[in-house]
Amino acid sequence: MAVVFERPKALLDVSTHYCPGCTHGIIHRILCEVIDEMGIEGDSIGVCPVGCSVMAYDYFACDMIEAPHGRAPAVATGVKRSNPDKFVFTYQGDGDLAAIGTAETVHAATRGENIVVIFVNNGTYGMTGGQMAPTTLPGQVTQTTPYGRDPKIQGYPVRVCEMLSTLDGTALAQRVAVDSVPHIKEAKKAIRKAFENQKDKKGFSIIEVLSTCPTNWGLSPIEAIERLRNEVIPYYPLGVYKDKEGENND
Amino acid sequence: MTNEIILAGFGGQGILFAGKALAYGGLIAEKEVSWLPSYGPEMRGGTCNCSVCISDEPIGSPLVNDPNLLIVMNTPSFEKFIGTAKKGAKVFVDSTMVDVTTDRKDIDCYYVPATQLATDNGLSGMANIILLGKLIKETGILDLETVEKAMSKCIPPKKANLLDANMKAVKIGMNYKD
Amino acid sequence: MERKLMKGNEALAEAAIRAGCKCFFGYPITPQTEISAYLAKNFAKAGGLFLQAESEIAAINMVLGASSTGTRVMTSSSSPGISLKSEGISYIAGSDLPAVIINVQRGGPGLGGIQPSQADYWQATKALGHGDFQLLVYAPASVQEMVDMVVKAFDKADEYRMPAMILADGFLGQMMEPIEFPEIKAEQVEKPWAANGHGGKRAHNIINSLYLKPEQLEKNVFERYERYEKIKATEADAEMYLTEDAEITLVAYGATARVVKSAVNMAREQGIKAGLVRPKTLWPFPVKQINEAAKSAEKFLVVEMSMGQMIDDVKLAINCSKPVEFMGRTGGMIMKPVEVLEEIKKIGGKK
């Protein structure tokens, strides 16, 4: 019987700690498919954040490093600079990347660090129980904005791809979502492009993946996908914000 | 025998350089040496001093508190350090820059118009080395050959052409009679 | 080999290159900046990488990343910057990674001053970050030791898979003394744990300090502390200066020990039996050497450029069996030998 669908080899055969309906699983899978297709598992080193994907080092088959909160781009810089021929990626959430780790993110980008950043944006601190994130939408109820995020008090959300697209060191800044099959396919294509960029030494590539958190949003998985589509994507438009096509940083 | 030396003046007068040349001279003469700069928040123009020890013994504290040799190149430094000089100390003063003298009778003060001499001889910026020459002459702690070797160690390769001018300054200092 | 005159900071940087350091990540701060400047100028020629990070926090995490791949790596800073690095240092220790960290101490707390200080002793030896862990802490007292100890720090950090610190001060960093670079054999330590790409030849390596099961975390910490016991037994080191018959034994490290040695010599000239124990490792603390000195000593006098931090370890080393007095200056003030001599005379030796 022909096998038409199987687990990517780069994704270890273990059960994960993610909640039912969480889209981390989809993002892990497409990332690992890219690693398999490019045949780079043995040459890849991943850096995990602090947040829901803190234990992703147990799920990816390549060598993995667990970074302090927000510091994954700095850790990845150290890895890449000492091993310029290896593929280096970080996998980070919104609190990690866009709050505590803003400086590390911006400066890795502006240095043009030749790494891939997978930025999973679900607008909440999932691991600690659903507090306001830098990307939480205005009006969104979280544990620390029980009356909804009020820009007059908590300020406005950060649009990361737009911000990083202004930097010369950024090679690719693209926002994708995992709410539908076409979008998932688009997301995988973007991740592949980011890794190809690294192969071609083009510099810093960030793929922002709009994601859900049914548990902390207080929604069913299907309702969460609908919210992502109807409320989140309109605030964070999908698309390519920066693409340094054809340049070579070598 | 331990020579404990303080060199002091404004930043830009070559205080640290002259100190380094002395220390290198000590090293070439196979003595124990140390060189310790004062450092502060200002990059330019502040007061500046350094401690140099040249000794037959291993050097304990490299920070000189009571020098037996003192080079001073501005009035604030003169006022700050003249009282710290040990009894019997030799003090070398750039009298172009320092407009005061001391009443102390227990030290030997040499007033050398080093900045004026430097200008007159087309050696502007080498008053420090003229004073160094006078110090060497009056103390005999280093011979001329050693000083020349030390200078060539301290002058960066890009400025190697300045060695002759520096040695000229040393000799002007050695030959100056007040 | 020819003796050269070099600044402490520059000599240390050159020694790091010769010791096989491959990466340096730093952030500017006085009075350690010559280390960065020297490496920025000379490291690339020697095949190394110098990178100025956006903060001390980023720098120490770059160290974590490079060390994770088995690369010899160093960072340097001064007191306020070390506080910022403390998070990363805890993670490095918790991940069993080697790294060399330089602290050219200045006065504190807060922004403090920029003159020499030894007020980070507690931080370095007791609490550089959260959790149960230690760093190897070396305390040079000369420019030559800045060289020798950085070489040793790299070797020992690799051997024990833990961070090592050179606890220097502005005085040692800025001064010039003659030095010789020792013949350094570039020790190639096997690092089978490194996360540098498994190449399809082994299972994946994970560099991590997270253990959510308390049994597992305790086991890890226990294992680390077994290593620490071995280190305490073998790595503690001190210079013993005229201690054999000393009735009053001074204890001082780093630049302060230079001042104290001058004072001890002056005391001996005046017939006072003074001696000096100079710890060369602050962790592990040279407990045996202090007790050796305690055989003849009637009293101890601890001298520090702080309000008194190492004095606790001296008292603990001898279980408070002898009086331990303290003399200190702080905020960047440096005591004079004659002031130490006065203190020696004041508290006296044998009654």
Keywords:
heterotrimer; A: 250 residues; alpha/beta; Rossmann fold; seven-stranded mixed β-sheet; two-stranded antiparallel sheet; 9 strands; 18% strand; globular; C: 351 residues; 2 domains; five-stranded mixed β-sheet
Report the span from N to C terminus of chain B: 28 Å
Rounded mean pLDDT score of chain C: 95
Shape of chain C: globular
Number of strands of chain C: 15
Low-confidence residue ranges of chain C: none
The percentage helix of chain C is 40-55%
Spell out the helices and strands of chain B N to C. Answer: EHEEEHEEHHHH
- Listing every helix as H and every strand as E from the N terminus to the C terminus, the arrangement of chain C reads EHEHEHEHEHEHEHEEHEEHEEHEHEH
Quaternary structure classification: heterotrimer
**Percentage beta strand of chain C:** 15-25%
Q: What is shown here, in short?
A:
The complex is a heterotrimer of chains A (250), B (178) and C (351). With 250 residues, chain A is of the alpha/beta class.
Write up this protein.
The complex is a heterotrimer of chains A (250), B (178) and C (351). With 250 residues, chain A is of the alpha/beta class. In chain A, strand 5 and strand 6 form a beta hairpin. The termini of chain A are far apart. Chain A has a single domain (24-243), classed as 3-Layer(aba) Sandwich (Rossmann fold). Chain A has helices at 24-38, 72-82, 94-100, 102-110, 151-154, 160-164, 181-199, 214-217, 221-235; strands at residues 44-48, 63-66, 87-93, 116-121, 124-125, 131-132, 170-177, 204-210, 239-243. Chain B has a single domain (2-175), classed as Pyruvate-ferredoxin oxidoreductase, PFOR, domain III (Pyruvate-ferredoxin Oxidoreductase, domain 3, 3-Layer(aba) Sandwich), CATH 3.40.920.10. Chain B has six helices and six strands, in the order E-H-E-E-E-H-E-E-H-H-H-H. In chain B, helix 2 links the parallel strand 4 (69-72) and strand 5 (90-94). Chain C is 41% helix and 19% strand. Chain C contains twelve helices and 15 strands. The longest helix of chain C has 22 residues, at 214-235. Chain C has 351 residues and is α/β, with parallel strands linked by helices. In chain C, helix 2 (33-42) links the parallel strand 2 and strand 3. Classes of the chains: A alpha/beta (250), B alpha/beta (178), C alpha/beta (351). Chains in contact: A-C, B-C. Chain A binds chain C through residues 41-45, 47, 54-55, 57-58, 60-68, 71, 74-83, 86, 103-104, 106-107, and chain C through 22-23, 25, 49, 51, 53-55, 57-59, 61-69, 71, 73, 87-88, 91, 95, 195-201, 204-210. Strand 2 (63-66) of chain A pairs parallel with strand 9 (206-207) of chain C.
